[in-house]
Design goal:
Layout: H1 2-11, E1 18-19, H2 37-49, E2 59-60, H3 81-91
Parallel strand pairs: 1-2
Amino acid sequence: MNSWSAAARRIGVKFVPFALPGFNRNDDPEETVKRDLSKWSARLRIAKKYLDPELKLMILTSFNEWFENTYVEPSTNEKFDYLQATRGAISS
């Protein structure tokens, strides 16, 4: 994210960091990002470092894309873990 943030500054545009809880393309395993709660927390902390102080905006990719394994919405298996990690990383 550092290079993207720097590139945005160079050309005078705002940068909005993002965090991804996981991603699974069943048709292309090479494009898979494994879901892992500690990695999700780390990705959120990294994205938070790059928040624009004026915008204070971060993209969470995404909330409830169950078929792509990118959800942070509560589930039977993970309960509220991803939402709690999100709150913890962003509010700290």
